[in-house]
Amino acid sequence: MSLVKKSSDLDLEELNSQIKNNISSPIVNSEPVIKKPVSEEIRRTDSSETEESTQKTKSRYSDTVNLNLPVGKRNEIKEFFNTYHLSMTQGILFAINYLKEDVKSGKVEISKLGVERK
């Protein structure tokens, strides 16, 4: 006895009932379901903590400046400050403060043309 009926063995009512059953039954995906690691789920639920840490970072560095530099100038500045173990931010802040002091003391003049020593 065969487990599978041949289409010739099926009558029209059985065929219709099988079609209805196949259409109404849910489609089962044969691919395995992969669960995400628990750490990802925790990260999603702790979004309030992430937002707080982002706000702390923003408050510490609340002012940002975008500079347009000639090609290669950024790397040149970065290498210069790295030789003195400074970040670019630290180096730029030191340089600006130094220049401000020199301007106040009258050692240097600043104009659109550049910086001139007196």
Structural descriptors:
two-stranded antiparallel sheet, single chain, 118 residues, mainly alpha, 7% strand, rod-shaped
**Please, what is the average pLDDT?**
77
Secondary structure: number of strands:
2
| SS class | mainly alpha
Span of the ends, CA to CA:
110 Å
Shape: rod-shaped
Query: What is the count of DSSP helices, taking H or I runs of 4+ residues?
Result: 5
The largest sheet, given as strand count, sense and whether it forms a barrel, is: 2 strands, antiparallel
| Radius of gyration over C-alpha positions, nearest whole angstrom | 36 Å
Describe the structure concisely.
This protein has 118 residues and is mainly alpha-helical. The protein has helices at 12-24, 38-45, 47-60, 73-83, 88-105; strands at residues 108-111, 114-117. Strands 1-2 form a two-stranded antiparallel ribbon.
Task: Produce the secondary structure layout.
Elements: H1 12-24, H2 38-45, H3 47-60, H4 73-83, H5 88-105, E1 108-111, E2 114-117
Give a written overview of the molecule:
The protein has 118 residues and is mainly alpha-helical. It has a two-stranded antiparallel ribbon. The chain is rod-shaped, with a radius of gyration of 36 Å. The mean pLDDT is 77.
